[in-house]
Amino acid sequence: MFAGSGQVASLSNGVKMPWLGLGVFRVADGPEVEQVVQWALDAGYRSVDTAAVYGNEAGLGRAIRTSDVPREEIFVTTKVWNTDQGYERTLRAFDSSLKHLGMDYLDLYLIHWPVKDTTRDTWRALEKLYRDGRVRAIGVSNFQAHHLRALMEDTEIVPMVNQVEFHPYLCQLSLREFCARHAIQVQAWGTLLQGKIFDVPEVIALAGKYGKTPAQVVLRWTLQHGVIAIAKSSHRDRIQANANIFDFVLARADMAQLDALNRDLRLGPDPDGFS
Ligand SMILES: NC(=O)c1ccc[n+]([C@@H]2O[C@H](COP(=O)([O-])OP(=O)(O)OC[C@H]3O[C@@H](n4cnc5c(N)ncnc54)[C@H](OP(=O)(O)O)[C@@H]3O)[C@@H](O)[C@H]2O)c1
Questions:
Q1: Which has the closest alpha carbon to 81: 36, 8, 25?
Q2: For residue 194, how far is its CA from the centre of ligand 1 (angstroms)?
Q3: Sheet (strand 106-111) strand order
Q4: What are the backbone angles phi and psi of residue 179, rounded to the nearest 5°?
Q5: CA–CA separation, 183 and 179 (whole Å)
Q6: Which of 106, 219, 233, 248 falls between 20 and 30 A from 55, CA-CA?
Q7: Which residue's CA is the closest to the ligand 1 atom numbered 35?
C-alpha cells in the first residue's frame, strides 16, 4: 500500500496531489471502469484521471461513491473537451462533468488541448470555478511553452498543472524548465509508451538491474524528474505492480541513460496541429 505514505506533491496553491494516479483513457464506462477504480483504490491509489471525452465519468464517480475510501481522500481530475471550450460552454461542461461524476466539487480541472481562438475564454471560466470554490486546482494539458506564455499574458491565475505526453522518447526538457520557472507542476501521460515500454531494450536492462518491471522503472524515472505520473491498466495485477515504485531509487547514471533515449517522438497528436 502506498496511500498515506506521504507520496504527494504540493501544487503552487498548496493543494496536495499524489505523485501517482490511475488513468482511465480507453476504459469503458460501467462495470469495467468501476472495477479498475476499485482495484486501484484497494492497491492504494488515491488519484484518478479521466476526461469528459473518455465517456466514463459516471462509472468512475460511482466506483468512488461506493468505495470505503472517503471522497476527500481521493484526488479526482477531469478535463474540458475542445468542442466545449469558451466561457459559457466550459461552465456548462463543468456542471455536466460534476453531474456525471455525482460529486459536488472537483480536485483538478484541465483544459484538455489548446484551442487557438477559445482557450483564453475557457481559462477565464476555470478561474471563476476556482474562485467560486468548485474546484481545488486548475490547469492545462498538452500546452507547449508558447501556449502557456500566451495564456499567462492577460489572465490572472497561472495554471497549477500542465499534463503532457512524457516518456523516454519525449523528455520535454525545455517545457519542464519553463514550467519549473513558473511553478507549474508537470504531469505525464503516455509514460508507459502506451504499453510499448516493454519493448525498449535499455528499459528492460534497467528493470533487470533493479529487480523491477520496465513499467516501474519508467514510472520511477518520471517521479525522480519531479513529474507526476499516471499509469493506465485494466488488469488488477498490473495496477498493483505499477504502484510499487516508492521503494527504490534510480542512480544518476541510469536516469541519464533514460534521458539519452529522447528523440522528441510523439505517440499522440502534436499540440500545435490538433484542435
Ligand atoms: N491529457 C491527454 O491528452 C492525455 C492523453 C492520453 C492519456 N492521458 C491520461 O494518461 C493516462 C495514461 O496514458 P495512456 O493510457 O495513454 O498510456 P500508458 O499509461 O502509457 O499505457 C497504458 C498501456 O500500457 C499497458 N500497461 C500498463 N501497465 C502495464 C504493465 N504493468 N504491464 C504491461 N502492460 C501494461 C496497458 O495495458 P492494459 O490496460 O491491458 O494493462 C495499456 O495498454 C490515460 O489513461 C489518461 O488518463 C491523457
A1: 25
A2: 5
A3: 185-189, 161-165, 135-141, 106-111, 75-80, 47-49, 20-23, 229-231
A4: -65, -40
A5: 6
A6: 219
A7: 195
pLDDT at 245 over 80: yes
Q: Is there an atom of ligand 1 within 6 Å of 185 CB? A: no
One-letter amino acid at 113 equals: W
Mutational pocket test of ligand 1: of 54, 77, 167, 189, the residue with most ligand atoms within 8 Å of the beta carbon: 189
Interatomic CA distance for residues 244 and 133, integer angstroms: 34
All 3 cell numbers of residue 171?
A: 523528455
The response to whether residue 82 sits with its C-beta less than 6 Å from ligand 1 reads no
Rounded to the nearest integer, the mean pLDDT of the chain is: 96
3-state helix, strand, coil in the chain (%, to 5): 45, 15, 40
Q: Ligand 1: does its nearest atom lie under 6 Å from the Cβ of 47?
A: no
pLDDT at residue 89 tops 50:
yes
The number of helix segments (H) and strand segments (E) in the chain equals: 10, 10
Give me the CATH code for the 8-259 domain, please: 3.20.20.100
Instruction: Respond yes or no: is residue 54 known to be catalytic.
Output: yes
> CA-to-CA distance for 195 and 201, rounded, in angstroms?
14
Q: What are phi and psi of 55, to 5 degrees?
A: 70, 20
Using most ligand atoms within 8 A of CB, pick from 33, 37, 48, 232 the residue to mutate for ligand 1: 232
- CA 255, CA 236: separation in Å to the nearest integer? 28
Between CA 274 and CA 170 the distance in angstroms is: 18
The pLDDT score that the predictor gives to residue 275 is 67
